[in-house]
Structure of NAD(P)/FAD-dependent oxidoreductase:
Amino acid sequence: MSTTTTHVYDTIVVGAGISGIAAAYKMNKEGYDDYIVLEKADRVGGTWRDNSYPGCGCDVPSALYSFSFSPSHKWSHLFAKQPEILSYLEEVTAKFDLYKKIEFNNELLSAKWDQIKGIWNLETSKGVYQAKTVMFTTGPITEPSMPKLKGIESFKGEMFHSARWNHDADLKGKRIAVIGTGASAIQFIPQVQPLAKQLLVFQRTAPWVLPKADMDLNETAKGVIQRFPIIQQTWRNSIAQILNGINFGLRNPKVLKPINVLSRQLLKLQIQDEKLRKDVTPNFDIGCKRLLFANNYYPALQQDNVSLIPHGLVEIDGNTVVAANGERHEVDVIIWGTGFEVSHPPIGKRVYDTDGKLLTERWKDSSPEAYLGTSIEGLPNAFLVLGPNILVYDSFIGIAEAQIGYIVDGLIKMKKQGIKQLMIKKHVLDKHNHLVQKHIKTTVFNAGGCKSYYLDANGRNFAAWPWSLKKLKAQLKTLDLDHYDAA
C-alpha cells in the first residue's frame, strides 16, 4: 500500500549506513527533530550489511573505525570483522534510540526539486515524501560492479558477486574462478581456497598487499579497555597519527620511495616461486591504488590447488572461462571480486538538478564536482556525504562525522535565520575544485603510474582529497553562509 505524506519534513536523510546513523545522532543531539531516515533494506549498516562474504573485515583499526561518540570495548581483533562491525552499528542505533526515525524497506526512486514551493519531492517505493532539505548518506561503495562480458549468460554454474555472496552455494570440491584481486578478493580468496578443488585467480593488475598488524583481543584485554577508556583514546590517537603519516606520504610520493623498495624486498621473503613473485609484483608506486593489508593472501596463492592468471577475463563460453592471453579453463563457479560502481556517486542515477537533468547525465561528459564533497551546483538545500574529492586514507567514519557536523550546522542556521533556499555559489565551487585538481596532480594517486578507480573515464581524479585530514576537518568546522546563495 503506497502512502502519500502531506507532512513536509525539515530534512529527509537517505540511507541508514554509517553516515545516516551519524546524521541521526547529530540531529538528535542538536534538538533538530523534524526529520526521517529512509532505508531501502530491512536493517541498518549499509556496506557492512551488504558485504557478508567470508573473511570480510575492515582495513582501518577498529579503535578508529568507530563513532567518536560511542567507542566500543567489544572488538575481538585490532581490525574488526564484518559481523562485529554490523552488530556495533545496530547497537549504536538502539543505544541512542535512532530506530524510531528510520523507515525500512523504503527505497528512494527519484528526488526532484520544486522551485515554486521550495521543497524536495522524493518518490520512494512507499509513495511521495516532501522535505525542505535532503541529506544523501548513501555512500560511495553501494552498487556492485559487474563487467559486461561476451557469453556471460551462457554460464551454467553458480555465479555471484562478493557483495551479494550466495551463502547457500556449495563450494566444496568445486573448480572456482575468482575475477579480480581488489580489497574484497584478497579477503575471501584465503577463505575459499581450502574448500576448492581448483581455484583460478584472474588478476588484471597486481595490487600492493602489505602485512596486516592484526591481533586477537581476548576477554582480559577487552575488560582492561572497558575499565580504562584512556587506553582506547590513546590507541585511537596513535592510529590517527600513523594514518596521518601515510597520508603525508601519499601527498609526497618521494617519501614513499624507500617503502616501495622495502615492499619489493618483502615479496622475496613472502613468495618463493620466482614466476609467481614476478606476477604479483605491482608495476606502480605504492599508494597509487588503494593500499591492501592481509597476512593470508600470499600464502593462499601458493597452495597446490591455486593458479594465478595474471590476465583479465575476456569471455565466458558455456562453463569455460577465457583469459586475455587466450588461456581456457573449465570451471563450476564464478565469483566476481570486481568491486563497486565508484566512478561517480551512485545516487546520481536518482537525483535531478534544478534544470531537471539527472546528475549521471550531467556528469557523463564532465566529472562530478562538489564543495568539500558536500554541496553540488544546481542542488539547492541538498547535501551529500562522502561525495566527490573527499577521500583521505583514514576512517570513513571520521570523515563522515566531520561532514555531518558541517551539514547540520548549515541546517540549524537555515532554520534559525528563516533561509528558504541555500545553494553553493558557482565561483566558490569553481575556485575550490581548481585548487583540488591543481594540488592532486603531484599526489601518488595521479603521479604513481596506475589506473585506479580514483580516476574516471575523463582521466580526472574525482575521489581523493589532496591535503591533510586536519585541513579537511578545519574547513568542515562550520558552514560559512557567505559561500552560499541564501534566499
In short: The domain at 8-143+341-486 is CATH 3.50.50.60 (FAD/NAD(P)-binding domain).
